[in-house]
Amino acid sequence: MTARVAAVAMQKGGVGKTTSTLNLARAAAVCHQARVLVVDLDPQGNTSSTLAADDVAPDQVTVADAVVPDSDVALRDVVVPTIWELVDLAPATDTLAAAEARIAAASTGREHRLRKALAPVLGDYDLVLIDNAPALGLLLVNALTASDVAVLVAEPDQWSADGLSLLHRTLTGVIEYSNPHLTVAGVLLNRVRPTATSAELADEIATGVRNHFGQVPVWLDRKVPLWQGIPDHLAAGLGLDQGPAKLRALAEDTYRPIVADLLAAAEVSA
After folding, report:
1. Where is the AAA domain (predicted)?
2. Which helix (H) or strand (E) holds 244?
3. Are the C-beta atoms of residues 4 and 263 closer than 8 Å to each other?
């Protein structure tokens, strides 16, 4: 069986894509004993700085080196260990922005650079999670082209609701031209506040998802609250399962079932 590949995506910044990627990776490793590869496809490199066991050196090979045209760097040579067992990382730095420009200048295969780079390592893992920048550019298209599913992360606010049509357009284009097997696993609502306005916006996002994406589920039963303890734990190199009871419950009730769905789909497709 080869790995299930999931792109964690939303073009709006600050919705918690990196946090979600890290927590999903942790849940896969701890709750399901799955072998996980996290691919950092954001030039900001926040996933890499949080997860890498050692600092990413300026001269170190990264994802950028593996996806640029005519590269002789294999993704396997990029992968490094992380602070968590069973989780590996393909790190990124700000060189990824220049790599995107080089990919864009290529005459052929621009959308398939990451898919090609990932192919040789898929047999080493159960799950690959791709963290993406808050943009709708060529790096996101590469991530979606390389993926089996997309996990969308939204904050219950008007900007996230308004951005669904743009993201839908990108996903539709990728499915039509690059990856006809891509599906959307669901929408995770993050940074949810205990207010009536937040609840109304969550319902609005659910309505927007139905209008744009059809039967794609919005996981209203798996909402992630706006708790400072979540990023604080990750910044300290700890999983939610290592935190107080409410964080452990969040890991168990929210991230574990999402990972279970992703892994179960991988077994069915195999």
Report:
1. 4-183
2. none
3. yes
Edge-to-edge strand list for the sheet holding 4-9: 80-81, 87-90, 36-41, 127-132, 4-9, 149-154, 183-189
Please tell me the distance from the alpha carbon of residue 2 to that of residue 135, in angstroms, as a whole number: 28
* Cα distance between residue 11 and residue 154, in whole Å: 9
In order of their start, the domains of the chain are 4-264 (3.40.50.300)
Q: Residue 264's pLDDT band (boundaries 50, 70, 90)?
A: confident
Helix (H) or strand (E) holding 4: strand 4-9
Tokens at 47, concatenated: 């996933």
Which range among 15-19, 39-43, 181-185 shows the weakest confidence by mean pLDDT?
15-19
The rounded distance, in Å, linking the Cα atoms of 45 and 52 is 10
Report the distance separating Cα 29 and Cα 32, nearest Å. Answer: 6
pLDDT of residue 204: 80
- The predicted-structure confidence for 205-221, as pLDDT tens digits, reads as follows 888 788 778 888 888 88
At 17, which helix (H) or strand (E)? helix 17-32
H/E segment holding residue 230: helix 229-235
Taking alpha carbons only, the member of 4, 95, 115, 88 closest to residue 43 is 95
Q: Using CB atoms within 10 Å of the CB of residue 80, give its burial: 0 to 12 exposed, 13 to 18 middle, 19+ buried.
A: middle
